[in-house]
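Pipeline run #58 for the internal structure catalog. This entry was flagged by the ingest filter as a single-chain record with no existing model, so it goes straight to prediction. Upstream metadata was stripped on purpose; only the residue string is passed forward. Reviewer on rotation: M.T. Logging verbosity set to normal.
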Amino acid sequence: MKISSWFSLYRLLIRTSIRSRMQYRFNFILSSLLAALIQISEFLMVAIVLNRFGVIKGWSVYEIGYLFSVMTLAKTLYRTFADEVHHLEKYLVGGELDQLLTRPLPVLLALMPQSFRIMLGEVLQGTAILCWSLNRMMQAGQISWTAVPLTLFIIVTGAVILFSIGLATATLGFWTTRIEELQNITEDAARTAAQYPLTLYPKWMSFLLLTLIPVGLVAYWPSLFILRGEGGFWFMAVLAGTACICLLLSLRFWQYGITKYQSTGS
Protein backbone atom coordinates (compact mmCIF):
# COMPACT_ATOMS: atom_id res chain seq x y z
CA MET A 1 0.00 0.00 0.00
CA LYS A 2 2.91 2.28 0.82
CA ILE A 3 4.46 1.68 -2.61
CA SER A 4 1.10 2.40 -4.25
CA SER A 5 0.83 5.74 -2.45
CA TRP A 6 4.39 6.64 -3.50
CA PHE A 7 3.59 6.10 -7.16
CA SER A 8 0.31 7.98 -6.84
CA LEU A 9 2.31 10.91 -5.50
CA TYR A 10 4.81 10.46 -8.36
CA ARG A 11 1.99 10.73 -10.92
CA LEU A 12 0.69 13.83 -9.14
CA LEU A 13 4.13 15.46 -9.29
CA ILE A 14 4.38 14.66 -13.01
CA ARG A 15 0.98 16.21 -13.72
CA THR A 16 1.98 19.32 -11.78
CA SER A 17 5.24 19.61 -13.75
CA ILE A 18 3.39 19.20 -17.06
CA ARG A 19 0.85 21.89 -16.19
CA SER A 20 3.61 24.33 -15.27
CA ARG A 21 5.40 23.74 -18.58
CA MET A 22 2.22 24.08 -20.63
CA GLN A 23 1.73 27.61 -19.30
CA TYR A 24 4.08 28.62 -22.12
CA ARG A 25 2.73 26.54 -25.00
CA PHE A 26 4.38 28.47 -27.82
CA ASN A 27 7.78 28.05 -26.20
CA PHE A 28 7.10 24.32 -25.72
CA ILE A 29 6.04 23.81 -29.37
CA LEU A 30 8.95 25.85 -30.77
CA SER A 31 11.57 24.12 -28.60
CA SER A 32 10.14 20.71 -29.57
CA LEU A 33 10.34 21.49 -33.29
CA LEU A 34 13.89 22.85 -32.97
CA ALA A 35 14.96 19.75 -31.06
CA ALA A 36 13.53 17.52 -33.79
CA LEU A 37 15.30 19.51 -36.53
CA ILE A 38 18.63 19.31 -34.72
CA GLN A 39 18.30 15.56 -34.25
CA ILE A 40 17.23 14.96 -37.85
CA SER A 41 20.07 17.07 -39.23
CA GLU A 42 22.53 14.91 -37.29
CA PHE A 43 21.23 11.76 -38.97
CA LEU A 44 20.99 13.43 -42.38
CA MET A 45 24.75 14.05 -42.34
CA VAL A 46 25.32 10.31 -41.99
CA ALA A 47 22.61 9.50 -44.56
CA ILE A 48 24.27 11.75 -47.13
CA VAL A 49 27.59 9.93 -46.69
CA LEU A 50 25.88 6.53 -46.93
CA ASN A 51 23.98 7.62 -50.02
CA ARG A 52 27.32 8.43 -51.64
CA PHE A 53 29.19 5.27 -50.64
CA GLY A 54 26.34 2.76 -50.21
CA VAL A 55 27.18 0.88 -47.03
CA ILE A 56 29.64 1.26 -44.17
CA LYS A 57 31.18 -1.94 -42.80
CA GLY A 58 28.27 -3.87 -44.28
CA TRP A 59 25.58 -1.69 -42.67
CA SER A 60 23.04 0.05 -44.90
CA VAL A 61 21.54 3.47 -44.30
CA TYR A 62 18.28 1.82 -43.17
CA GLU A 63 20.06 -0.34 -40.60
CA ILE A 64 22.00 2.61 -39.25
CA GLY A 65 18.77 4.63 -39.20
CA TYR A 66 17.28 1.84 -37.12
CA LEU A 67 20.15 1.92 -34.62
CA PHE A 68 20.02 5.71 -34.48
CA SER A 69 16.26 5.87 -33.86
CA VAL A 70 16.17 3.07 -31.27
CA MET A 71 18.92 4.78 -29.28
CA THR A 72 17.14 8.13 -29.59
CA LEU A 73 13.80 6.76 -28.38
CA ALA A 74 15.38 4.78 -25.54
CA LYS A 75 17.22 7.90 -24.38
CA THR A 76 14.03 9.94 -24.71
CA LEU A 77 12.05 7.47 -22.60
CA TYR A 78 14.74 7.55 -19.91
CA ARG A 79 15.15 11.31 -19.89
CA THR A 80 11.38 11.95 -19.97
CA PHE A 81 10.80 10.22 -16.65
CA ALA A 82 14.17 10.65 -14.94
CA ASP A 83 15.87 13.71 -16.44
CA GLU A 84 16.83 15.11 -13.04
CA VAL A 85 19.04 12.07 -12.42
CA HIS A 86 21.22 13.45 -15.21
CA HIS A 87 21.22 16.84 -13.45
CA LEU A 88 21.96 15.65 -9.93
CA GLU A 89 25.08 17.82 -9.76
CA LYS A 90 23.06 21.01 -9.31
CA TYR A 91 21.30 19.44 -6.31
CA LEU A 92 24.62 18.44 -4.78
CA VAL A 93 26.38 21.75 -5.39
CA GLY A 94 23.46 23.97 -4.37
CA GLY A 95 22.41 21.87 -1.40
CA GLU A 96 18.93 21.33 -2.88
CA LEU A 97 19.16 17.61 -2.17
CA ASP A 98 18.73 18.44 1.51
CA GLN A 99 15.14 19.50 0.79
CA LEU A 100 14.38 16.16 -0.87
CA LEU A 101 15.83 14.28 2.09
CA THR A 102 13.17 15.81 4.35
CA ARG A 103 10.26 14.52 2.25
CA PRO A 104 8.39 11.40 3.41
CA LEU A 105 9.23 9.33 0.32
CA PRO A 106 12.37 7.83 -1.25
CA VAL A 107 14.82 10.49 -2.43
CA LEU A 108 15.04 9.05 -5.93
CA LEU A 109 11.25 9.06 -6.29
CA ALA A 110 11.19 12.68 -5.14
CA LEU A 111 14.03 13.64 -7.49
CA MET A 112 12.81 12.11 -10.75
CA PRO A 113 9.66 14.23 -11.39
CA GLN A 114 11.23 17.53 -10.31
CA SER A 115 11.46 18.73 -13.91
CA PHE A 116 9.37 16.34 -15.99
CA ARG A 117 10.33 16.80 -19.66
CA ILE A 118 7.95 16.29 -22.58
CA MET A 119 10.54 15.57 -25.29
CA LEU A 120 8.14 15.83 -28.21
CA GLY A 121 10.85 16.77 -30.72
CA GLU A 122 12.94 13.70 -29.98
CA VAL A 123 9.85 11.46 -30.09
CA LEU A 124 8.81 12.82 -33.51
CA GLN A 125 12.32 12.51 -34.94
CA GLY A 126 13.00 9.04 -33.54
CA THR A 127 9.60 7.69 -34.58
CA ALA A 128 9.87 9.13 -38.11
CA ILE A 129 13.32 7.62 -38.75
CA LEU A 130 12.32 4.30 -37.16
CA CYS A 131 9.16 3.97 -39.28
CA TRP A 132 11.09 4.88 -42.44
CA SER A 133 13.84 2.36 -41.70
CA LEU A 134 11.49 -0.48 -40.78
CA ASN A 135 9.27 0.15 -43.81
CA ARG A 136 12.20 0.07 -46.25
CA MET A 137 13.66 -3.10 -44.73
CA MET A 138 10.25 -4.80 -44.78
CA GLN A 139 9.80 -3.87 -48.45
CA ALA A 140 13.20 -5.39 -49.17
CA GLY A 141 12.20 -8.59 -47.37
CA GLN A 142 14.99 -8.22 -44.82
CA ILE A 143 12.64 -8.29 -41.82
CA SER A 144 9.03 -9.21 -41.06
CA TRP A 145 6.30 -7.60 -38.94
CA THR A 146 7.72 -9.33 -35.83
CA ALA A 147 10.47 -6.71 -35.87
CA VAL A 148 7.94 -4.11 -34.67
CA PRO A 149 7.06 -5.61 -31.25
CA LEU A 150 10.68 -6.66 -30.75
CA THR A 151 11.77 -3.10 -31.45
CA LEU A 152 9.32 -1.71 -28.89
CA PHE A 153 10.70 -4.23 -26.42
CA ILE A 154 14.33 -3.20 -26.91
CA ILE A 155 13.41 0.49 -26.65
CA VAL A 156 12.02 -0.19 -23.16
CA THR A 157 14.96 -2.38 -22.09
CA GLY A 158 17.32 0.18 -23.61
CA ALA A 159 15.74 2.95 -21.53
CA VAL A 160 16.26 0.83 -18.40
CA ILE A 161 19.93 0.28 -19.27
CA LEU A 162 20.51 3.98 -20.00
CA PHE A 163 18.77 4.91 -16.75
CA SER A 164 20.97 2.45 -14.86
CA ILE A 165 24.13 3.93 -16.38
CA GLY A 166 22.91 7.45 -15.61
CA LEU A 167 21.98 6.56 -12.03
CA ALA A 168 25.32 4.85 -11.36
CA THR A 169 27.18 7.86 -12.74
CA ALA A 170 25.07 10.27 -10.70
CA THR A 171 25.70 8.24 -7.55
CA LEU A 172 29.42 8.87 -7.86
CA GLY A 173 28.55 12.50 -7.18
CA PHE A 174 28.01 11.65 -3.51
CA TRP A 175 31.79 11.30 -3.32
CA THR A 176 32.98 13.73 -6.02
CA THR A 177 30.14 16.32 -6.08
CA ARG A 178 31.09 17.36 -9.63
CA ILE A 179 30.01 14.73 -12.17
CA GLU A 180 29.28 16.66 -15.37
CA GLU A 181 32.56 15.72 -17.06
CA LEU A 182 32.09 12.08 -16.16
CA GLN A 183 28.54 12.15 -17.54
CA ASN A 184 29.92 13.47 -20.82
CA ILE A 185 31.82 10.19 -21.10
CA THR A 186 29.47 7.57 -19.63
CA GLU A 187 26.22 9.00 -21.00
CA ASP A 188 26.63 11.50 -23.84
CA ALA A 189 29.77 10.30 -25.65
CA ALA A 190 29.07 6.59 -25.11
CA ARG A 191 25.44 6.91 -26.24
CA THR A 192 26.43 8.88 -29.33
CA ALA A 193 28.99 6.22 -30.26
CA ALA A 194 26.41 3.45 -29.82
CA GLN A 195 24.04 5.11 -32.30
CA TYR A 196 26.18 3.50 -35.00
CA PRO A 197 27.46 -0.07 -35.55
CA LEU A 198 30.13 -1.01 -33.03
CA THR A 199 32.09 -2.64 -35.83
CA LEU A 200 33.16 0.87 -36.84
CA TYR A 201 35.32 1.15 -33.72
CA PRO A 202 38.46 -0.62 -32.45
CA LYS A 203 37.82 -3.90 -30.67
CA TRP A 204 38.79 -2.51 -27.25
CA MET A 205 36.22 0.27 -27.63
CA SER A 206 33.48 -2.11 -28.78
CA PHE A 207 34.22 -4.31 -25.77
CA LEU A 208 34.01 -1.29 -23.47
CA LEU A 209 30.62 -0.26 -24.91
CA LEU A 210 29.26 -3.76 -24.38
CA THR A 211 30.55 -4.34 -20.84
CA LEU A 212 31.76 -1.50 -18.62
CA ILE A 213 29.43 1.10 -20.20
CA PRO A 214 26.88 -1.25 -21.82
CA VAL A 215 25.23 1.18 -24.22
CA GLY A 216 25.96 -1.29 -27.02
CA LEU A 217 23.24 -3.52 -25.54
CA VAL A 218 20.59 -0.87 -26.19
CA ALA A 219 20.42 -1.07 -29.98
CA TYR A 220 23.45 -2.70 -31.64
CA TRP A 221 23.50 -6.10 -29.95
CA PRO A 222 19.74 -6.86 -30.20
CA SER A 223 19.67 -5.51 -33.78
CA LEU A 224 21.96 -8.37 -34.82
CA PHE A 225 19.04 -10.70 -34.13
CA ILE A 226 16.14 -8.45 -35.17
CA LEU A 227 17.63 -7.21 -38.45
CA ARG A 228 20.03 -10.00 -39.39
CA GLY A 229 18.74 -13.11 -37.64
CA GLU A 230 22.06 -13.73 -35.89
CA GLY A 231 21.96 -15.72 -32.69
CA GLY A 232 18.44 -16.58 -31.58
CA PHE A 233 15.48 -15.46 -29.53
CA TRP A 234 17.59 -16.03 -26.44
CA PHE A 235 19.14 -12.65 -27.30
CA MET A 236 15.93 -11.02 -26.05
CA ALA A 237 15.86 -13.07 -22.84
CA VAL A 238 19.49 -12.21 -22.10
CA LEU A 239 18.78 -8.55 -22.85
CA ALA A 240 15.82 -8.45 -20.43
CA GLY A 241 17.87 -10.17 -17.74
CA THR A 242 20.79 -7.82 -18.26
CA ALA A 243 18.53 -4.76 -18.03
CA CYS A 244 17.07 -6.04 -14.73
CA ILE A 245 20.54 -6.73 -13.33
CA CYS A 246 21.80 -3.30 -14.37
CA LEU A 247 18.78 -1.66 -12.74
CA LEU A 248 19.15 -3.65 -9.53
CA LEU A 249 22.88 -2.95 -9.23
CA SER A 250 22.45 0.78 -9.92
CA LEU A 251 19.66 1.06 -7.31
CA ARG A 252 21.78 -0.75 -4.73
CA PHE A 253 24.71 1.51 -5.54
CA TRP A 254 22.44 4.56 -5.17
CA GLN A 255 21.18 3.36 -1.79
CA TYR A 256 24.75 2.92 -0.60
CA GLY A 257 25.95 6.19 -2.10
CA ILE A 258 23.25 8.31 -0.50
CA THR A 259 24.45 7.20 2.93
CA LYS A 260 27.74 8.93 2.11
CA TYR A 261 26.09 12.22 1.17
CA GLN A 262 27.39 15.29 2.97
CA SER A 263 25.58 18.58 2.49
CA THR A 264 27.52 21.48 1.00
CA GLY A 265 25.97 23.71 3.64
CA SER A 266 24.85 26.27 1.02
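catalog note: The radius of gyration is 19 Å.
catalog note: The CA atoms of residues 7 and 45 lie 42 Å apart.
status: ready for reviewer M.T.
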